[in-house]
Amino acid sequence: MVKSIYVGNLPWSCSEDDLRKLFEAYGDVNSVKIVEDRETGRSRGFGFVEMEADAALKAIDNLTEATLGGRSLQINEARPRAPRPPRRW
Hints:
Elements: E1 2-8, H1 16-24, E2 29-36, E3 43-52, H2 53-63, E4 67-68, E5 71-72, E6 74-77
Antiparallel strand pairs: 1-3, 1-6, 2-3, 4-5
InterPro entries: Nucleotide-bd_a/b_plait_sf, RBD_domain_sf, RRM2_NsCP33-like, RRM_dom, SLIRP/GR-RBP-like
Organism: Desulfobaculum xiamenense
Protein name: RNA recognition motif-containing protein
């Protein structure tokens, strides 16, 4: 079973490769996505890492107090996205 991990407070200079390397110490990483601003393409300072459940729990436990690029990371299991209300034109 795959778990999604929320990683917040990322430095602007952090790449998806940097994030992958940080989490690979705890198991195989299925995917990494740093969320970007639609207009500027600049990082919004958070992202998601997907790993197998056991590896994800180990990574969350070990990286909770971690720093990257001088910033304290916020790491926890991602919550499912809330459904959006339908658009009314």
